[in-house]
């Protein structure tokens, strides 16, 4: 035996002032929703300000910066270079260049490291020192390639990274016995990402260094070789 349902009624809700209808409650609830939405949106907005980068595009092409700022953070990075083994820096070694390089567009500037003679055993030690400890530092080295009978770019991370991302055309782990370098003979176009390695440091860290050098033995021809450095990035929520 079923019971006939009673006629629909407008539910009543008790309030401090007495009794109010569903419409009154719903109208009040509508005003509270935006407050909740704003509260949940705030962390995402703050997180977007946590990654801080240098801005090579703000630098004048052809200049050789030794100190670079992370805009809005008060943090700076000081760059220094020491050549060894007969390294002869070109006139644009350490200079800001226009793209493309390492697959980046023509609108993205970068810093060049270039050996004008590329003799066997020659190379460049690069050091980057930060004005305060930084967290989750990352940067990319561009265009490690191998020109047959000419040069083979190789890089050692003298400050070992926490991790690294290696392009498909490269091999190695960035150590003295197994540097990052191209797997097979052949130059990589400057518009390609295939010769890049990204270095990642959890930190906190105050300085990093790496060595760029000529990897082909018994080669003393007069030619040049080069790689590039991307903007630097670290995390600090402002």
List the main descriptive attributes of the protein structure presented here:
about 240 residues, mainly beta, Jelly Rolls, 2 domains, 15-stranded antiparallel β-sheet, two-stranded antiparallel sheet, about 10% helix, about 40% strand
Task: Outline the structure in words.
The protein has a 15-stranded antiparallel beta sheet that branches. The protein has a two-stranded antiparallel sheet with strand order 1-2. The chain is built from 1 helix and 17 strands. The protein has 2 domains: 12-47, no CATH class; 52-235, Jelly Rolls. The chain starts with 11 loop residues before the first strand and ends with a strand. It has one helix at 22-47; strands at residues 12-15, 18-21, 51-53, 67-70, 75-84, 96-97, 110-115, 123-142, 146-147, 151-156, 163-166, 170-171, 180-182, 197-201, 205-214, 225-229, 233-235. The chain is mainly beta. Mean pLDDT is 83; it is low at 1-47.
Q: What is the residue-mean pLDDT, rounded to a whole number?
A: 83
Stretches where pLDDT is under 50 for at least 5 consecutive residues are: 1-47
Helix-residue proportion:
10-25%
Fraction of residues in β-strands = 35-45%
Oligomer: single chain
Order of helices and strands: EEHEEEEEEEEEEEEEEE
Q: What is the CA-atom radius of gyration, in angstroms? A: 28 Å
Name the overall outline: globular
